[in-house]
DNA sequence: TTGTGTTTTATTGCCTCC
DNA sequence: GGAGGCAATAAAACACAA
């Protein structure tokens, strides 16, 4: 298969000139192109050249493919817009596009068409509904090649993520291209929520915002309940001990405004709460969701590993195994192919639109981190749980090596993955331009998904057990370790990477403690 | 096996921008 | 005027039902 793909690629180059009979792109080429397209809808000439070189295609073919791909996207978005329009009219629910914050920029049908957008803007934003379209299509493509795309595993396939690394150095954990969810050993990952794409129908506008609406409703109820609402109250059916006399004597003056802090002193200083109170507008849907999620998880600070769904866990582990390979490649060969741009920092900081939507995501993640750090110190002081501290270190090193082991900015970004939605989203809120609004909505969606999974898992872990926080942490830790071991066994690539990283860690400056390096090794599987 | 519909690829012409 | 992008079109490849 591998040989045939390469052969076919070579054949493409030669035979395309000889006869005009069209050649289908190999699955690996398609995967690479799709991946790249998700990052850069309008690749520069250099990018095209490199892509062409990597994929064994001509630049013309690359250009043509991207052109057609954009057309395809546009077509799909039109269809979707029509479908959504119908749905929205019939349901009368909040429009999906833009999810509130980005509505002005993405909600109008006018913007459903690339033609009305600055191409650069389109690229850097990603049109709002783009992910779904691409996901849908890549999904279809995967069906189109039932023999398993990753089974090709030829050089082009290798170069796909590789190229992505080179040009974007970003990985959105919630990107929905199935191609990225293929495991390094060629097996399809276990079903996960993202697999819902498989259901064939894209989520309608209503379905997509339904969860948000529910959270908003919960928040509303919560505010109505005021002090009576206990975030971390006992499970239903548990009887309370009688309160001691005077138990309510020392309430804050305005408890109605501080239901959370009453319920959970840990949160009283939370900037999230502050922000939630400050933000009664549309965005409060997310804010309140974050708050809810965080409250549920107030004892879980630092134990985010266990809160990952195993499928996602596997996904991330698989992706990282591949990424690590690519990252190392990028270190010795392609760190700066394009002078003046496309280095990682450049991609991050380039605000001209060349950088993909990841830029914004990353910056968000970076900013998110700070709030989380702040909260972490809070919870740490309250919990005095050494496991938590250890996990924090572990997570840091894990993220450092698992995601981005080069760039400090990337490290920060990686922190975001484990971080909870934080106040910095709100605290750093300044008058947003269109791009930021659209981005904000998207980020909120991402965070919501993470939060959903996390909250669910948290509940699962403590369900009916009444565990003390330490026990919870231990349980979670054990779960994480188990999953890590499982993933090492399951993924030979990850195992190989593990050994390689271990070697490279041995060469690291002595400032890295042994503990950290040890954690790093196991964290690879994250 | 065949016919039909869909998707993908290649080509060409036009338009816009620099 | 050249480069890049979009749109239209043709044709090959593919999926699927009869």
What CATH calls the topology of the domain at 25-79 is Arc Repressor Mutant, subunit A
CATH architecture field of the domain at 25-79: Orthogonal Bundle
- Name the poorly predicted regions: 1-19, 89-162, 167-218, 228-242, 247-526
Spatial extent as radius of gyration: 24 Å
β-sheet strand percentage: under 5%
Count of separate DSSP helical elements:
23
Region (Disordered): 1-30, 82-113, 144-178, 343-384, 414-438, 504-526
Main location: nucleus
Protein name: Homeobox domain-containing protein
Domain Homeobox: 16-76
Secondary-structure map with pairings?
Layout: H1 2-18, H2 27-39, H3 45-55, H4 59-91, H5 103-107, H6 119-125, H7 130-144, H8 155-167, H9 205-225, H10 259-263, H11 271-278, H12 284-296, H13 304-307, H14 310-332, H15 344-349, H16 357-383, H17 386-402, H18 408-418, H19 424-427, H20 434-462, H21 469-490, H22 492-506, H23 514-523
Helix pairs in contact: 2-8, 3-4, 3-8, 8-14, 9-12, 11-12, 12-20, 14-22, 16-18, 16-20, 17-18, 17-23, 21-22, 22-23
The structure holds a DNA duplex (18 and 18 nucleotides).
């Amino acid at each position: 298969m591998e040989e045939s793909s390469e052969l076919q690629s070579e054949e493409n180059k030669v035979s395309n000139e000889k006869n005009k009979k069209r050649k289908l792109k190999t699955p690996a080429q398609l995967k690479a192109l799709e991946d790249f397209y998700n990052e850069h809808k309008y690749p520069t000439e250099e990018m095209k050249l490199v892509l062409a070189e990597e994929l064994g295609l001509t630049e013309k073919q690359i250009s043509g493919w991207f052109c057609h791909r954009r057309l395809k996207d546009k077509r799909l978005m039109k269809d979707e817009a029509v479908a959504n329009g119908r749905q929205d009219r019939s349901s009368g629910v909040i429009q999906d596009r833009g999810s509130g914050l980005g509505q002005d920029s993405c909600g109008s049908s006018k913007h459903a068409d690339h033609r009305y957008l600055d191409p650069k803007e389109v690229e850097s934003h990603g049109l709002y509904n783009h992910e779904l379209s691409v996901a849908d299509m890549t999904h279809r493509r995967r069906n189109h090649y039932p023999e398993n795309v990753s089974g090709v595993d030829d050089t082009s396939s290798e170069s796909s993520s590789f190229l992505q690394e080179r040009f974007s150095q970003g990985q959105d954990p919630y990107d929905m291209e199935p191609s990225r969810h293929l495991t390094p050993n060629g097996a399809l990952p276990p079903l996960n929520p993202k697999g819902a794409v498989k259901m064939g129908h894209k989520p309608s506008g209503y379905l997509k915002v339904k969860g948000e609406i529910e959270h908003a409703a919960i928040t509303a109820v919560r505010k109505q309940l005021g002090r009576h609402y206990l975030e971390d109250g006992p499970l239903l059916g548990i009887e309370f001990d009688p309160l001691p006399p005077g138990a309510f004597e020392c309430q804050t003056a305005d408890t109605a405004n501080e239901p959370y802090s009453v319920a959970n002193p840990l949160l009283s200083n939370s900037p999230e709460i502050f922000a939630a109170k400050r933000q009664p507008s549309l965005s409060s849907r997310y804010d309140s969701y974050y708050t809810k999620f965080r409250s549920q998880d107030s004892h879980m600070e630092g134990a985010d590993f266990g809160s990952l769904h195993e499928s996602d866990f596997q996904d991330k582990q698989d992706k990282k195994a591949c990424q690590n390979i690519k990252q190392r490649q990028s270190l010795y060969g392609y760190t700066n192919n394009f002078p003046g741009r496309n280095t990682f920092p450049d991609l991050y900081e380039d605000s001209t639109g060349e950088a993909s939507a990841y830029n914004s995501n990353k910056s968000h993640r970076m900013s998110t981190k700070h709030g989380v750090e702040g909260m972490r110190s809070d919870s740490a002081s309250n919990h005095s749980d050494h496991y938590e501290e250890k996990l924090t270190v572990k997570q840091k090193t894990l993220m450092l090596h698992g995601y981005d082991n080069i760039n400090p900015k990337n490290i920060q970004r990686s922190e975001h993955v484990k971080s909870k939605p934080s106040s910095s989203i709100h605290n750093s809120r300044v008058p947003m331009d269109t791009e930021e609004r659209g981005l904000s909505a998207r980020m909120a969606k991402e965070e919501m998904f993470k939060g959903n999974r996390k909250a669910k898992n948290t509940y699962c872990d403590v369900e009916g057990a009444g565990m003390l926080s330490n026990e919870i942490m231990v349980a979670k830790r054990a779960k994480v370790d188990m999953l890590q071991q499982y993933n090492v066994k399951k993924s030979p690539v990850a195992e190989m990477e593990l050994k390689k990283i271990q070697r490279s860690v041995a060469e690291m400056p002595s400032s890295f403690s042994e503990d950290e390096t040890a954690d790093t090794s196991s964290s690879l599987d994250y």
